[in-house]
Structures are given as structure tokens and as C-alpha cells.
């Protein structure tokens, strides 16, 4: 186990983008937890939504006076092959779960749990990867509640993978899901719903000065910002459906011949499929100069692309939440997204963008064209989008919801 480095964060820095009443509620909730020591555990410090959220959540909690640590598991490729199969199985696409896979999972989680030092009043386990640590946690910290923060869509899981994860999940004190529907298939003692959020202060989301923006444009050459641009930003993962986005782009290009597509993705540290899928997508698009397949670009580059794209697409087949949608909406860029998972919570259809069914390539292409053909509509949707995210999907709101769950689990009196 290791502790990633953390940026400096102050709750006061969020005052320009969120209401004073929300910040006051955060301070009141934190005061009720001022003598509590909290640990977050996940499986990677790079790539994916959890690894982006915790570097903001943890230091803001510390600034609020809640003693909070974050530890990341140390594991090898064999373990991550098992946990990626588990992730896929929980979303309905299952390879056989063998006894050898279970043994690899148990050995790795037990070894990591044995490295924990000190005592905590509450432990938050993110997703299935660290859940196996619960055996040792129950022995070494018998009075500490365990909260499982599940970021995955569990609406259509494979029975054998659900049963395997349930061996551990049924023993936690509370499970937090991104949507209420995700908890319907699993029997846990208590459930809460907390929608994820974006941090408007990070390099990916804060405003860009003219000099920085110009430098990033130059680095993206030969991609042109003088021609229409559609972008999808997501991990290279089969559930993100980069191939469907590519086909929707090709259909839209029949109406808008100079259209460009940027498919931009990162490689999550706990996802062994990423490199293989990136290579497949790159091969599929190699003969199309207007398609740019980019990987592992810095956050400031992603920021620029989300700001300067005419339309952002998120054509996922399954999606736990999909914070890249709110990232683009925050930057006043309308989004065409699939009507799955957390995406419809973020996109107001016909107001901030459009929703299409995940297998509706033609519908996605039509919506892309409709937005590209109407600059006034794009501008209006963009302004609507900014305010929608400001109200619902910025970090202070998520953190208030999270601390409220902690206060409830620990039976602490917080604000009503």
C-alpha cells in the first residue's frame, strides 16, 4: 500500500463557483466529524474517475478538519486481470470465474490489508478491488464502520461475479452507489446514493489563459480548430464504445465533409485491456486523416479539447456515471450521450445536449449534425449546461453528501 501525493486544497477556493449555504453546510458536517480519522482505499492513483476524485476529496476534508488518508493498493497484473474481469462481469459481460482467480484476489487483498498501520474510525473501500481487505479490517479495527463506495453500474450483473463480490459487500456497514438502481441487485445492510462530481479547480477544469490555450493548440497539430470538431474523451475500454463513436462520426461527415473527430483516452493503472483497445481503435482509424486517436495527454490538453470542441460525445454502452460529461458541460460544450448509467442525470435532453440509446449510431450522428448546423443552439445549450453542472455536479455538493453519510454511519449529529 502506498499514499499518493496530494495537491493543496482549501474549501474557501470554491466560494466563487458554489453558494455560501453549501459551504456552510460542509463546515457544519465537518465539525461533527472533527475527532474522526477516515481512510480511503482504492486500486490506482492514475486513470479513471476514482483516481481523479480522491486527490480533491481528501485534501478538502483535511482542510475542513476531518483527518483523512488515502492509500492505494500495490498489486501485479494477475490481480488486475481478475479485477477487470470482475468489473466486466458486474456489468454483464462475464468470462468464467475460476478458483484460481478467486485465490489471486484473496491473496493480494489480504497482503495489502496486512500492511495497514494505525487505527481508523471509518474506512471507505472504493469499488470491488479492495473489498477482500474486509476480513483483516474486521479483525484489526473491529469498531470501525466500513463503507463500500461502488462506482459501477450493477443493474445487469453476472450471477457468479455478483455472488463473489457479495461475499464481502454484504458485510459492510453501508454501500454508497451513484444511482439508486445500482443497489437493487445486491443485499447490503444499508445503502446511500451520492452522485459523483467534478472539481472545477483542477488543471482539467479550470479556465485557461490565452497563452496556455495557444500552446496547447500548437501541440495538437495537425488537428485544426478552424474546422468543426467532435471529441470523445474516455478510457480505452470496450464499454466506452469508441468504435460506435467512430461510426457515428463517419455518418455525420457525410453531411459535414470537413468534420474532425478526436478520440482521446487515458490508460488506467488497474486496467490491463487499455493498451490493446487503444491499438485496435488506432488501427481502425489509421487511414482517416480527420480522425485523431490520442492517449495519455495531460489534463490541460483535455481541458482545451473539451472547451474548443463544437460537440462532445459520450457513446458508452454501460457507464457508472461518466464525469467527462459534466466536464464538457461545465465548459459550455453541449454533449451527445448514451441514455445509460449516470449520463442522463447529467444531460438534460434538448436543453444541454441530447440523449440517444447506446446502440443508436444513426441517432447519435443526427444529433451531432443538428448541433453543428446551429451555432445559436450550441451557445444556448452551453450556457444551460454550465448552470446545470454548477448546481448539481461540483465537488462541494458531492462532499457534503459524502460527509452526511459518514455522520449517519458513525451516529454523529450533523446539520439537518
Automatic annotation (TrEMBL):
The keyword Transcription regulation does not apply. Residues 40-182 form the Trehalose synthase N-terminal domain. InterPro entries: Glyco_trans_1 (IPR001296), Trehalose_Metab_GTase (IPR052078), TreT_GT1 (IPR049438). The keyword Protein biosynthesis does not apply. It comes from the Archaea. SUPFAM superfamilies: UDP-Glycosyltransferase/glycogen phosphorylase (SSF53756). Residues 227-387 form the Glycosyl transferase family domain. Transmembrane segments: none annotated. GO terms for molecular function: glycosyltransferase activity. Keywords: Carbohydrate metabolism, Glucose metabolism, Glycosyltransferase, Transferase. One of its GO terms (biological process) is glucose metabolic process. It holds the Pfam family TreT_GT1. Homodimer. Belongs to the glycosyltransferase group 1 family. Glycosyltransferase 4 subfamily. This is Glycosyltransferase. It comes from Halovivax ruber (strain DSM 18193 / JCM 13892 / XH-70).
